[in-house]
Specification:
The complex is a heterodimer of chains A (about 270) and B (about 300).
Chain A lengths: L6 E12 L4 E7 L1 H5 L6 E5 L10 E4 L2 E3 L4 E7 L3 H7 L6 E8 L11 E6 L4 H12 L5 E6 L8 H6 L3 E6 L6 E2 L2 H11 L7 E5 L2 H13 L4 E4 L15 E3 L6 E3 L6 E3 L8
Parallel strand pairs in A: 8-9, 8-12, 9-10, 10-11, 12-13
Antiparallel strand pairs in A: 1-2, 1-7, 2-6, 3-4, 3-7, 5-6, 13-16, 14-15
Chain B lengths: L6 E3 L2 E3 L3 E3 L21 E7 L12 E4 L2 E4 L7 H14 L4 E6 L4 H12 L7 E5 L10 H4 L2 H12 L5 E5 L7 H10 L4 E4 L3 E4 L1 E2 L4 E2 L5 E5 L4 H12 L6 E4 L5 H10 L3 E4 L2 H4 L3 H15 L17
Parallel strand pairs in B: 3-4, 3-16, 4-7, 7-8, 8-9, 9-10, 10-15, 15-16
Antiparallel strand pairs in B: 1-2, 5-6, 6-14, 11-14, 12-13
Helix pairs in contact in B: 4-5, 5-6, 6-7, 7-9
Classes of the chains: A alpha/beta (about 270), B alpha/beta (about 300).
Chain lengths: ~270, ~300
């Protein structure tokens, strides 16, 4: 893609920290990548020491520091790849490829509501930090399975971001789904309907969000996840159907961020 | 001494034996940030069909032990857009460009070749995909039957004097028979192997992982299976063979050449390390220098099997 710079480089792991029983954070110094990174983009990572697991793992950029040149990833243990990454230690080598994909179009919007489900909060932390730095006041609505899965909530509170937390089991915050929490907020405070929704989470959450946003004529952007091999448009593996199901988009090149009405989230 | 890595595929000379496999290297331009394409022996494009294809429903790929399964479904821009949008970039390259061609009937293969023949000065030749496991019509249905391989190769031979590479499937009991059919029908080169058909299951959902149910297996675990097929072909045909299957390093390339391949194609490895093809060319050079091999062609088919 013209105008975008993608970098392929080996990096040593600088820091690893467990944030709860299944979420951990990795930090690398990669100033060239950081310089080119925007909220919503992702990096394709692998351990160069092994071909097992084989493919790179696409991970949203969780946080970046332009001055210091570090980049962070928030990772949830889900399979063999994330298991392997969780067993690494500072000094271990990784191969980073990115930044890849498009980004959240946040600069020209009045205000944003950032809706995240589970590990879907990862790109929204980067987005929230950028928005706050530029003087905007995003509202965060994040959902987790339970209090044990909570992550980064205190950090966001410290940044003075308005944050609402929902848990499936009611062990923290609102008892129910993020989408129910959002619907309630929009119902109770009509002024919040001017905001643009930026979301990342499981497909059923996105499908429900799309309906809510349509009800209130709100702008919305969704960040998607997909199985992919290359991350830069060559393998055509990360296809998602268009809304009319007449063609496919590639999550890596056409996304990962899609405008409302672009893709079909399933019935 | 700089070793001579050049090899011949029939009348066509390549600077080195490293090509990139169809479907793993886009239309070449996707990799230009990572690879000096002119360092490669050649590149093989995605399969081109008469009309654009949108491809299969997701999931289209999944990692499995030792490799991955894909069922992309020959998604491509179609021959007209290929000529107008992709060819200008490809025609500037100094490395050999081979256009992979697919269709659902002999007519469709013929129509793509006939159309490309009008602009074929820009290409070194064609690779005929008779082995895609992920589309309902054409592809594998032709590729499994030696009679059909003969028929389609003969038909396409009449349309072009350019190098005609016939890409074979391993999903048969006798790959040698397919290779012979292609050779007798006037094919210049064989490429083998395409992917093995595989299936991945999601136990929780009791569903196949892939939207197409089955997919093609590729990756490191394919190498030994592919080497055995090259061995079988080498002992059956006399035309050059391009080896494909699980190549990740220059040592893998050497194995294929010793067994009988004149050249190789790098496939899945391009996804894992986008610059791997160029790196392999450099490593082959170093290997040959270090082992006093002045011409890499010495290695082809030199496997010692007497014990």
């Amino acid at each position: 893609m013209t105008g975008r710079k993608r970098i392929l480089q080996n990096c040593e792991l600088a820091e690893k920290e467990w944030l709860n029983a299944s979420y951990y954070r990795l930090r690398f110094y990669a100033p060239e990548i950081v310089k080119n990174s925007h909220p919503g983009q992702f990096i394709n990572l692998r351990s160069p020491e092994t071909l097992d697991p084989l493919l790179r793992r696409p991970l949203s950029i969780f946080r970046c520091n332009g001055e210091k040149g570090w980049i962070e990833f928030l990772i949830k243990l889900v399979g063999r790849g994330t298991q392997l990454f969780s067993q690494t230690k500072p000094g271990d080598r990784f191969s980073l490829l990115g930044p890849l994909g498009n980004s959240f179009p946040w600069q020209n919007i009045k205000n944003g509501i950032l809706v995240g489900g589970g590990i879907g909060i990862a790109p929204l932390v980067f987005l929230a930090e950028e928005m706050i730095q530029s003087g905007k006041k995003p509202t965060l609505i994040w959902g987790f399975q339970s209090k044990e899965e909570l992550c980064c909530v205190d950090k966001m509170k410290a940044l003075q971001a308005g944050i609402h937390v929902a848990t499936d089991d009611g062990s923290y915050g609102f008892h129910g789904l993020v989408t129910e929490k959002l619907a309630r907020l929009l119902h109770e405070s009509p002024e919040s309907r001017d905001a643009t929704v930026f979301a990342c989470g499981p497909n059923p959450m996105m499908a429900a969000l799309e309906k809510i946003c349509a009800n209130y004529f709100m702008e919305a952007y969704f960040s998607l996840e997909a199985h992919m091999a290359c991350g830069f448009g060559a393998c055509a593996g990360c296809a998602v159907p268009s809304h009319d199901r007449k063609k496919y988009y590639l999550v890596c090149e056409d996304g990962p961020v899609f405008h409302k009405g672009d893709v079909y989230f399933g019935s | 001494m700089v070793p001579d890595l050049s090899i011949n595929l029939g009348k066509t000379k390549l600077d080195n034996p490293v090509l990139t496999a169809s479907g793993t290297f886009g239309y070449g331009e996707e990799f230009q940030e990572f690879v000096n394409l002119n360092r490669l022996g050649g590149i093989v494009t995605k399969s081109i069909t008469p009309r654009p294809r949108i491809g299969n429903p997701p999931h289209r790929l999944v990692e499995v032990p030792g490799g991955m399964l894909n069922a992309i479904g020959l998604a491509n821009v179609g021959v007209e857009k290929f000529i107008s949008e992709k060819m200008p970039f490809l025609s500037e390259l100094k490395c050999k460009v081979i256009v992979n061609v697919a269709g659902e009937s002999i007519n469709e293969y013929e129509s793509v070749i006939a159309r490309l023949a009008e602009v074929e000065d820009h290409f070194a030749g064609y690779e005929i995909n008779l082995s895609c496991p992920n589309v309902k019509e054409g592809g594998l249905t032709f590729g499994k039957d030696a009679g059909q391989v003969f028929k389609i190769t003969s038909a396409l031979r009449k349309l072009t004097d350019k190098m005609l590479i016939i890409k074979l499937t391993p999903n048969v009991s006798d790959i040698g028979e397919l290779g012979l059919a292609a050779q007798e029908a006037g094919g210049d080169v064989l490429s083998a192997i395409n992917t093995f058909v595989g299936l991945a299951v999601n136990v929780e959902k009791r569903r196949p992982v892939l939207g197409n149910i089955t997919g093609g297996f590729s990756g490191p675990a394919l190498k030994s299976l592919a080497l055995a097929k090259i061995w079988e072909l080498k002992n059956t045909v006399s035309i050059p063979i391009i080896g494909i299957g699980g190549i990740f390093t220059h040592k893998d390339v050497l194995e294929f050449m010793l067994v009988g391949a004149s050249a190789v194609q790098i496939g899945t490895a391009n996804f894992v390390e986008p610059d791997v093809s160029q790196k392999i060319v450099g490593d082959l050079e170093k290997y040959c220098s270090g082992h006093q091999i002045s011409q890499i062609t010495e290695l082809i088919g030199s496997l010692e099997t007497r014990f």
